[in-house]
Every structure is written in C-alpha cells, then in structure tokens.
Fold this sequence. Notes:
The protein has strands at about 30-50, 55-60, 60-65, 70-75, 85-90, 95-100, 105-110, 115-125, 130-135, 140-145, 155, 165, 180, 190, 195-200, 200, 205-210, 220, 230-240, 245-250, 260-265, 270-275, 285-290, 295-300, 305-310, 315-320, 325-330, 335-345. It is an all-beta fold.
Amino acid sequence: MRIVLGFLLFTTIFSCKTDDPKTIKVVDSVVIETIFKDSLLSIRAIDVASDKSIAFAANNGMFGLYNPLTDQWGTAKQSYDTLDLQFRAVARTANDFFMLSVENPALLYKTGETGAMEVVYKEAHEKVFYDALAFWNAKEGIAIGDPTDSCMSIILTRDGGETWTKLTCDLLPEIKEGEAAFAASNSNIAIVGDNTWIATGGKVSRILFSPDKGKSWEVYETPMVNGEATTGIYSIDFYDAQNGFAIGGDYTQPDRTTANKMKTSDGGKTWQIVADGKEPGYRSCVQYVPNKGGKELVAIGFRGIDYSHDSGNSWRHLSDEGFYTIRFLNDSTAYAAGQGRISRLNFK
C-alpha cells in the first residue's frame, strides 16, 4: 500500500563540516526539549536540514517529517505485504527522501513522482540486513549492510536513487570471520567530498575506505574492542579528509570504557585509542560539532550524552537522558532520537 504524502518535498542536506573554526567555548550543559513522542517507536535514523526540517523513519513502518514553519509533524505508515517494516537508515537529497529497511527482504524506498514512497531496490536473502544509507550528492548514494557473501553488502546509485547496484565481492575487501556492521544510528558511513569510510564491527572491527565514491576500496585495521558479535565500532564521523573519530564498545556491557573510542589524523589509515578506561562507555553515535575546527564532539547512547572539547582526548558527561542517534543543525543545536521520541538539544 502506498501512502501519498504531500509534505515529502525535502530540502538539501545540511553539511556540518566547515573550515571556519571558532574560539572554543567549553560546553558544560545541555537543554533537552522533546518535540515528538510516540511510545511505540524506536527511532534510530533522522535527517536534519538547514531549514530545520527533520525527517525520520523507524520501526512499525513509520516515517515522517517535521515542518518548522508550522511547528507540526506529518507521519505515515509504510506497508509491504504483511511485513512489519523496520527502518534504521534514511537520507535526503535536494528532491527526494530515502528510507531503508533492515531485514529480509531489504526494501529501499524513494519518494515517487506523486509523493508516494516507492520501492527502488529489493534484496531477498536469509542473511540480508542493511545498516546505513548516505549520499555524496544529489545523484550518487551508497548503502551498506551485513555480508551475504564474502564481503560487506554495498549498493550504489548513480542516477539519483532510481536504480541501485550491488557491488560484487571481487571489487571489495574480503571480510573476516564474524565481521559485520551495526544498524544502531545510521552513522557507520562517513563522507567528505569523494572520500567514504565504512565502519565494521563484531568479532572484527575495521574501516573500509574509498577515495572515489565507491569505485575502489581498501581496508584498514583498528584497535577498537572486538572479539564478540556485540563489540566494535558503532559510529564514525569525519570532520575533514584527515581527521575522524569512531566510538562503540559493547552494548551488552555499556559501562565498559576500554578501547571503545579512537581517532585518526591521517584519513583513517591508522587509529589511536583515546580516553582509555575513562567515560564514556558504550555509545551508539558520535558527531563532530560544526564550525569548531574538529575539536568538539558529542557522543550519544542509551546511557546518556557526552561532550569533548579536545578532539576526544577527554569527555564531560552532560546528561543521563538516553538517545540512539544525533544530528547537528548548527554549532549549538542538534536533534536526537531514541526510544519513543525526538528531541531538540541546545548546548550551553
């Protein structure tokens, strides 16, 4: 069943990376204002645009858009046969909204000409499980998922999302036993220009890197905690082509603080563990604060919100409020989503 949504006319994705660092004013608090509630939803994927509009997709086939001009939400439910669709990845281009379900069959939806959501990619496999979705530009995009063969599942579009093609394993690094990815926050893909980094996790936790929008790939080892199906990198972000940060851990041991935070200054080739044995423990999403020269970061998870002013070397716990994912609107305001809600976060 297709649901026509007139409000699904989306604006260009807001880029939070700039080269205009400001004088650091250390954040010591966060004000949380809940702007959307639905106790039945687990929201792990949001997109925030420069016009302050917010798009999301969640479990139970639900998705929606916040209109800042009217301060109202429009929501709808997507159905496909009798499936209970679980969405954990979303993306927007200048013209379209995309959402990707996780389980078999994986279904990638795009806004159609009439405003209805239409399936543009379907993959049926007993091991299929897609984790994250992102675009380089209005025409070219990428989604990644757990392996169904000897490599990570990677699909690409070069025509604005009308068609998607899955890369064959001869074009990708071979996975190691127990290597996969996490669909925790739609943030295990990072893009800067043509550069793309993908974080894997599980019994092995590595970085896949492409310098040319998915045409070629290499793989880098990391010191992130690994060895169990629940360990590894859960989220990655890059401020520029050289400086990046990754966070994770083990969500079954959320207080574990060893080897769960790391940074790079050479484009992901090498990584250094930071704040080892210190808070925060497990977190599902990390993002650079825009316009801060790559110095300020916020990490978020079901155990709370944490902030760093020194590239992740030290952290300050700001709140015990739990969320799954976060995206910045500007250098002081972000939106976070989690169990049953989406909130506006103002950092002070």
